Amino acid sequence: MRTLLVERSAGVTTITLNRPEVRNAMNVTLFEELRAVIDEAGRNPADRALVITGAGGAFSSGGDLITPPDEAGAEAEPIPMTTLKFLRGAVADAALALHRCPKPIIAAVDGLAAGAGVCLTFACDLVLASETARFSLIFVRRSLCVDFAGSWLLPRIVGLHKAKELAFYGDWIDAQEASRIGVVNKVFPASEFHAGVRAWAERLAAQPPTAIATNKQLLNNASQLSLTEALDAEAMAQALCTASPEFAAAIAAFMQRRTPPGGPSSAPAK
Q1: Total domain count, the chain
Q2: What does the CA dihedral 197, 38, 113, 145 come to, rounded to 10 degrees?
Q3: CA distances (Å), 252 to each of 61, 205, 239, 242, 248, in order?
Q4: pLDDT tens sequence across 161-220
């Protein structure tokens, strides 16, 4: 890996965006490597929960506007054509990988998250932030529009009018405001951030994987389905859950009045 660090421990796979010299700006290589790691983790039974974070005191400053998207040394093309290929290729592939991955993904945000870096947090299943975190859909300040699936994800998180406010002005918001509008699940004091992220990730890793995967798929797809279609999708997913070995183990624990793995006794502090 040229742009990422990947560490595995106790079922938790931590993916660190590792371009601190440019505050983890995302180039073609990073998007391609991110897609590859997410796809691999989705297939690997040992990877139970994923954490995406950034090196060097920042999450990500967004898309790399300095390094040309075409890093292969091919003949230069007009910027609009290069941009189109970049967004339809590496960027779209990474966004779809995050959406389709059956494993739960946490964005752990310490420092700034801007532009496509914020959209990366939207694409994760949970967002945990240090009290020092700051967020901005900074695209408009560069005369650009939202990308990396941000236009699809953000209205579903905060509502259409709030999404337009964030996109039209590109203002910076702090971690507490991001939590208030629903972008962040929990804010930690800086001194507790890493331990807090680890506790949330380890609890996710202990949860039954079939139930997590089916819940993620149902919730991601819900806005595109009618009520009838959603009920049918739930029935199919529930049938899959009841056929899993985790279901049998959970029922046995219930009958024996034991707490199943991932239960309330291992919940992180609220």
Answers
A1: 2
A2: -150
A3: 48, 20, 18, 13, 6
A4: 999 999 999 999 999 999 999 999 999 999 999 999 999 999 999 999 999 999 999 999
Burial of 235: CB neighbours in 10 Å, binned 0-12, 13-18, 19+: exposed
The pLDDT assigned to 79 comes to 80
Do residues 16 and 56 share a domain? yes
Task: Give the closest residue to 17 by CA, choosing from 96, 120, 138.
Answer: 120
Instruction: Specify whether the CB–CB gap between 51 and 106 falls below 8 A.
Output: yes
Q: What is the pLDDT of residues 29-85, one digit of tens each?
A: 999 999 999 999 999 999 999 999 999 999 999 999 876 554 544 456 788 888 888
Question: For residue 208, what are its two tokens?
Answer: 């039954």
Per-residue pLDDT tens over the stretch 83-118 = 888 899 999 999 999 999 999 999 999 999 999 999
Domain extent, residue 238, equals 208-266
Entry pTM? 0.91
Angstrom distance (rounded) from CA 154 to CA 134: 16
Q: Which two tokens stand for residue 198?
A: 């680890």
3-state per-residue secondary structure call for 204-262: HHHCCHHHHHHHHHHHHHHHHCCHHHHHHHHHHHHHHHHCCHHHHHHHHHHHCCCCCCC
Based on the domain organization, do 112 and 166 belong to the same domain?
yes
CA distance linking residue 107 with residue 54, whole number of Å:
9
The residues with which 215 forms a beta bridge, in sequence order, are none
Task: Please tell me the chain's helix, strand, coil percentages from 3-state DSSP, rounded to the nearest 5.
Answer: 55, 15, 30
